[in-house]
Amino acid sequence: MDANLVIPFLDLVTPHLELEQDLSEVFCRSLSTAGFIGGVMVEGFEQSFATFCGTRHAVGVSSGTDALRFALMACGIQSGDAVVTVPNTFIATTEAITQAGAAPEFVDIDENTYTISIERLRHYLANDCTRNQFGRLISRRSKRLVTAVIPVHIYGQMADMDPILDLAEEYGIAVIEDACQAHGAEYFSRKRNCWMTAGSMGRVGAFSFYPGKNLGACGEAGAVTTDDGDIAARVRMLRDHGQVRKYYHDVEGYNGRLDAIQAGILSVKLKYLARWNGQRRAGARVYDELLEPFRGIVTIPGEASYSKSVYHLYVVRTSFRNELQAHLTDAGIGTGIHYPIPLHLQNAYAWMDRKIGEYPESEKAANQILSLPMFPGLTLGQQGRVAEAISQFAAKHASC
Ligand SMILES: *Cc1c(COP(=O)(O)O)cnc(C)c1O
């Protein structure tokens, strides 16, 4: 195959080459001051990212997984608690729950948005939980205290936050947004009558800046966003060995800081994020239109009326997933599956003893979803060739 005709799933090279000078300058500045950990570059990025998200605080940490773990711990989630989330997410969501000392419990997803199903969440809280003698919410199944829910803003689209926040208030649990795939995603809050940004609606938001995310570092990085000054202060302590002052440790913490070089790189790239997200959204509308004629074969992603997705991924659904993926691979088109096995069926969670069929929408999605090439510099020509390859596949299927 002609290398020029190959369409990557994700192009991480071009944007960095375009910004090479600014990015190299960050490195030189760091060398000249030996400011590698903390300092002005970290504080500068934290301020700009808080502004971008519309929160009072952003605290830089070493990864999205640490952001989730510190967010949970700062909200008071304790050893023995249960935290509710979906099976259709990257394992980091549940790893963070376990690392905070709690155990995950699952609620199925909505089949159109792939985010947590409000109906299932309401059902879980009302029927799968009960109150103990102190009025605290406990899981009937595990007998653990249920203390938080993590809605995952998957593929760039926010979960339906208004009813989640209402339910959380009614049942007295904390809401921690997993915004690792949703930097800059927006949600129209019917309650507040305004658009809100991912990471600004729950008590805390957690972001990853893994290189492939909408805002990516040149290495590992993450951030926690919140309006709550006490939570921000606790996260700052947790990321830095439990100290507020050097060598005065109030608690045991972690080595979970954000590198100055990564913070500087993120500050450079943050200036482009709105433009890049706009390009992703425009690319999604192009795909929507190009794929419309093949509705019988592929279902385009659903964007809820309350939502402006930032299309971290453009995920279609098809009953012929494996065949279509193989067909696109043969045509030189990169694809991905996010994710092929729902968490409750992963070996790592065999101890939970969940059965096939317990979370049917997550299981169905895992068998049918396919992520098409999606990144800011994706061209109309490339998208046309993806559609052309899908058209060939559709024709083949119509004739047999
Ligand atoms: C990437 C990701 C994470 C973890 O982020 P890391 O920076 O890789 O630790 C958590 N949750 C979701 C949904 C993600 O996509």
Please describe what this structure looks like.
- There is one protein chain.
- Strands 1-11-10-7-6-2-3 form a seven-stranded mixed beta sheet, with helices on both faces. The protein has a three-stranded antiparallel beta sheet with strand order 9-8-14, with no helix packed on it. A two-stranded antiparallel sheet has the order 4-5.
- It has helices spanning 13-18, 20-33, 40-53, 64-74, 92-99, 118-128, 161-171, 229-239, 260-291, 321-330, 360-368, 380-399, and strands at residues 57-61, 82-85, 103-106, 129-131, 137-139, 146-149, 174-178, 186-189, 194-197, 204-208, 222-226, 243-245, 248-249, 307-308, 314-317, 369-372.
- It starts with 12 loop residues before the first helix and ends with a helix.
- β2, α5 (92-99) and β3 (103-106) form a beta-alpha-beta unit.
- The protein is α/β, with parallel strands linked by helices and 400 residues long.
- It has two domains: 13-268, Aspartate Aminotransferase, domain 2, CATH 3.40.640; 273-398, Aspartate Aminotransferase, domain 1, CATH 3.90.1150.10.
- 39% of the residues lie in helices and 15% in strands.
- Bound molecules: pyridoxal-5'-phosphate.
- Pyridoxal-5'-phosphate binds at residues 63-65, 89-90, 92-93, 152, 178, 180-181, 208, 210, 222.
H and E string: HHHEHEHEHEEEHEEEEEHEEHEEHHEH
Report helical residue fraction: 25-40%
Number of strands: 16
* Gap from first CA to last CA: 27 Å
CATH class of the largest domain: Alpha Beta
The structure class reads alpha/beta
- What proportion strand? 15-25%
Number of helices: 12
Largest sheet geometry: 7 strands, mixed
What average pLDDT do the residues reach? Answer: 96
| Overall geometry | globular
Low-pLDDT segments, ≥5 res? none
Please state how the strands of the largest beta sheet are arranged side by side.
1-11-10-7-6-2-3
In CATH terms, the superfamily of the largest domain is Type I PLP-dependent aspartate aminotransferase-like (Major domain)
| Bound chemical compounds | pyridoxal-5'-phosphate
How many separate structural domains? 2
- CATH fold-level topology of the largest domain: Aspartate Aminotransferase, domain 2
